[in-house]
Amino acid sequence: MSAGLAEVVRVWLLARTGPAWPWRLTRPSAMVEFQTVVTGFAGSLGCEFEGTGCISGAPRSRMRIPNPELEVLLPVHNEAGTIEATIREIYEELSPRVTLQFIVAEDGSTDGTKEILQRLEQTYPMKLVMSDQRKGYGPGVVGGLRELEAPYLLALDSDGQCDPRDFEKYWDLRNEFDVVTAWRVHRRDTAWRRFASGTFHAFYQAVFRLPIHDPSLCYILARREVVERLVPELGPKVMVEGFWWEFNARAHRRGYRLGEVPVNHRDRLAGESRLIPVRKVPSIFCRNFLAVFRVWYETRA
After folding, report:
1. Residues 130 and 9 in one domain
2. pTM score above 0.70
3. How does pLDDT run across 197-241, given as a tens digit for each residue?
4. What is residue 84's three-state secondary structure?
5. What would the pLDDT profile of 19-58 be if each residue is shown by its tens digit?
6. How far apart, in whole angstroms, are the C-alpha atoms of residue 223 and residue 5?
7. Is residue 286 a contact partner of residue 243, using CB atoms and an 8 Å limit?
């Protein structure tokens, strides 16, 4: 029996252990492990394994890259107008430079985004994590972060505002810093959004004193060890409207080296930015004001 086939049998028998073995195999963790082993064995025979995607919450994948250098995380919710162009642009720009695979964290879209992604996963190397229900930005991102296997993660939003041509600047700093963030020198957002972000940023920096200008944007290169350390700490109820504010603050407080690169911040490829209603601003500010102190307290040691 070949080593690959022996491993397939080992995982199958492991899944059968216990009084309710069929249920054990249908758990996402067991199914993903079994699918991974079968994929590797099929690949050794020159075959392709096509994931079924039938397990809720488990990543579906039709094309997998063995041992990618980089995985690109895209949080996605109702981006039918932008997602195909965004994925194509990222892949065409990055793939000549680095071996990459996408992690697409889809969060309960209702505008046709799911169907577009199901088609794209047949063309691009991708782990597609889809949700039937809207979980929210933070939990959706954390679900994607848990799928990271490559040594490096590049996370960026899927609306096309982040320019993948800036990636080379990130990649050149990967040995110098543990986390590299973006600095939107010329930010393409509304005046109200810049004002609200700037006000909170002044308070945030008074507490954390991060060595970067722009901790809120989802355009980040991070080592896998940083992600693995921080994911258990990133709860869904801390900085609900400021996931990357929290990620960067915790990374800095845990002693990781933070750097930044100036980036080209563009207008959205399609649609409009989701603005926070003015009536909700006071409650959001108070909630995140308290969250800053909670993050500081949890990371004081």
Report:
1. no
2. yes
3. 888 999 999 999 999 999 999 999 999 999 999 999 997 667 878
4. helix
5. 333 333 433 334 444 444 444 444 444 444 444 343 345 5
6. 33
7. no
Q: What is the DSSP letter of 165?
A: G
Q: Under a CB-based contact definition with an 8 Å cutoff, are residues 86 and 131 in contact?
A: no
CA 297 to CA 30: how far, in whole Å?
Answer: 36
219/163 Cα distance (integer angstroms): 9
Distance between CA atoms of residues 23 and 13, nearest Å: 13
Q: CATH number of the domain that 196 lies in?
A: 3.90.550.10
One domain for residues 7 and 97: no
| Single-letter residue type at 177 | F
Strand, coil or helix: 263: strand
The CB density around residue 243, as the number of other CB atoms within 10 Å, is 23
Provide the domain limits for residue 70: 55-298
For residue 75, which of 138, 32, 126 has the smallest C-alpha distance?
138
Nearest to 268 by CA among 157, 179, 171: 157
